[in-house]
Backbone:
């Protein structure tokens, strides 16, 4: 990873932490409803379930700006056929795009690349939003395992496993 | 929000603009609309005569302009930006679903803007 990319993922995590703080969320699970309500105080934002996405499409953020730029509306649509865990991650991921303003022209939809830096950044944001390290450290110290933690944070065991594995140095029980 | 009088003046100005651009005289436009004299067009362009929707529709066809041009709602360009969470390579069905969502979002943006 390039130094600049590292900085971006770091700031993605920091933004997630500050959002949790602003929303006064103190423990898991992180309520996306609370986060969205908070964002709706500053953004014209709608969140909708999408019934007709294929399994490959998890979510989309659409931002519409009028020419005079005096109105802007953002909408997050998530695949409603996915599991609860996946839906939460998709919504959190799109919130990341919204806050980082990492959207692209609608002509480029077909050239979407899931491995681009913008996507990594949104994933890092979502991961930290749903599994804040500060909360995890506390819960991990109490001796919870991956399965219990995943259940508590309402994330998949896979996502929790990744989170713990990538923060081994910070998560020690001794 | 424009008051009614100003609105007719605005529409009149747009009619004049479109008529002049098409190279028609007031007389010629009056004839095409079936008005008895060019004064009617002159009054319409100054906003003193309230143009009817039926006449406006005729004018829009005669002068080859979208009817929204005359009420100042033409060319409200909406800038669309998107971000996805997906696997690389979307099929046609998903691309169509995305286009549909964009259209709906545009509509909601317009509706919100006019509240």
Residues:
């Amino acid at each position: 990873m390039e130094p600049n990319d590292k900085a971006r993922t770091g700031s993605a995590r920091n933004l997630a932490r500050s959002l949790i703080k602003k929303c006064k969320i103190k423990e898991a699970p992180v309520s996306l409803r609370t986060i969205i309500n908070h964002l709706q105080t500053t953004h014209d934002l709608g969140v909708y379930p999408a019934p007709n996405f294929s399994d490959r499409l998890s979510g989309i953020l659409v931002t519409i700006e009028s020419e005079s730029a005096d109105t802007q509306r953002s909408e997050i649509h998530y695949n409603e056929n996915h599991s609860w865990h996946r839906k939460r991650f998709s919504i959190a991921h799109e919130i990341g795009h919204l806050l980082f303003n990492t959207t692209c022209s609608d002509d480029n939809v077909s050239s979407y690349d899931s491995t681009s830096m913008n996507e990594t950044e949104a994933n890092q944001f979502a991961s930290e939003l749903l599994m804040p390290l500060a909360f995890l450290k506390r819960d991990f110290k109490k001796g919870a395992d991956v399965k219990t933690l995943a259940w508590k944070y309402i994330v998949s065991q896979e996502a929790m496993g990744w989170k713990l594995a990538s923060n081994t140095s910070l998560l020690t029980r001794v | 929000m424009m008051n009614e009088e100003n609105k007719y003046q605005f529409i009149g100005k747009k009619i004049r603009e479109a008529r002049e651009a098409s190279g028609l005289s007031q007389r010629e436009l009056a004839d095409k609309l079936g008005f008895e004299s060019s004064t009617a067009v002159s009054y319409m362009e100054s906003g003193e005569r309230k143009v009817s929707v039926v006449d406006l529709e005729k004018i829009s066809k005669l002068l080859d302009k979208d009817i929204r041009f005359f009420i100042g709602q033409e060319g409200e360009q909406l800038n669309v930006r998107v971000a996805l969470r997906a696997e690389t390579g979307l099929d046609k069905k998903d691309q169509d679903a995305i286009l549909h969502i964009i259209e709906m979002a545009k509509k909601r943006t317009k509706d919100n803007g006019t509240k």
